[in-house]
């Protein structure tokens, strides 16, 4: 641009300023390192520029460093970094809700249903984080998602035994664990019962206020 202006190939001042603005916009990483202006000198228009030594020194000082600006006035640099990293944990939690827990956004019409959905999402995430800490404390190599997937393969089976009196005896058993599932439960210090009690389903109240 400086050469084109000096040779008279670009004479319109507005076009000079537009070209200069495009150059600065195309190279934002280094635009602050230079002071540039279109000036008139003895009837001739020139592009005048100089390198800002103070900005260059600041660039070299922060090269390879990750800088954070905060409005918090108390705490150490380590405290600021810890709080900043909590943002990544929050972002990860939203990804977990959508992927591992498969809780997708639902469009509710009533406020109480919105609150109920938020509660279910929060409880699910709280349980997932608890599982993550338990696995970490046990030194497990499995992720919470892997553990949930493997344990979801367990099934309960109802065995019906008819008697000579004409009655039926219901026995609820759990499917046999494989080696990996046994290891996971051992690390979590959990033991499955040999039999499960039948689930009694309670009838909902006919009163909508209590349902």
Detailed description of the structure:
The protein is of the alpha+beta class and 211 residues long. The chain has 3 domains: 2-62, no CATH class; 73-141; 153-211, no CATH class. The chain has 8 helices and 4 strands; from the N terminus they run αααββααααββα. The chain has helices at residues 2-6, 13-26, 28-31, 53-62, 77-98, 111-137, 144-151, 179-187; strands at 34-41, 44-51, 156-162, 168-174. The strands form 2 sheets. The chain has a two-stranded antiparallel sheet. It has a two-stranded antiparallel sheet with strand order 3-4. The mean pLDDT is 80.
Order of helices and strands: HHHEEHHHHEEH
Largest sheet: 2 strands, antiparallel
Strand residue percentage: 5-15%
Number of helices: 8
């Amino acid at each position: 641009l400086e050469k084109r202006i000096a040779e008279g190939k670009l004479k319109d001042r507005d076009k000079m300023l537009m070209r200069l603005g495009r150059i600065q916009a195309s190279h934002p990483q280094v635009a602050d390192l230079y002071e540039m202006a279109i000036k008139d000198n003895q009837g001739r228009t020139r592009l005048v520029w100089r390198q800002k030594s103070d900005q260059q020194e600041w660039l070299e000082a922060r090269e390879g460093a990750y800088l954070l600006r905060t409005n918090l006035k108390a705490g150490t640099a380590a405290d600021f970094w810890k709080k900043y990293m909590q943002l990544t944990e929050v972002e990860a939690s939203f990804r977990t809700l959508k992927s591992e827990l498969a809780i997708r956004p639902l469009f509710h019409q009533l406020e109480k249903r919105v609150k109920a959905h938020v509660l279910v999402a929060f409880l699910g995430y709280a349980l997932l984080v608890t599982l993550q800490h338990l696995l970490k404390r046990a030194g497990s190599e499995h992720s919470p998602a892997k553990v949930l997937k493997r344990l979801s393969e367990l099934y309960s089976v109802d065995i019906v035994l008819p008697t000579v009196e004409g009655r039926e005896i219901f026995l609820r058993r759990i499917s046999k664990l494989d080696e990996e599932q046994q290891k996971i439960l051992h690390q979590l210090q959990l033991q499955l019962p040999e039999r499960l009690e039948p689930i009694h389903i309670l009838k909902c109240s006919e009163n909508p206020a209590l349902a």
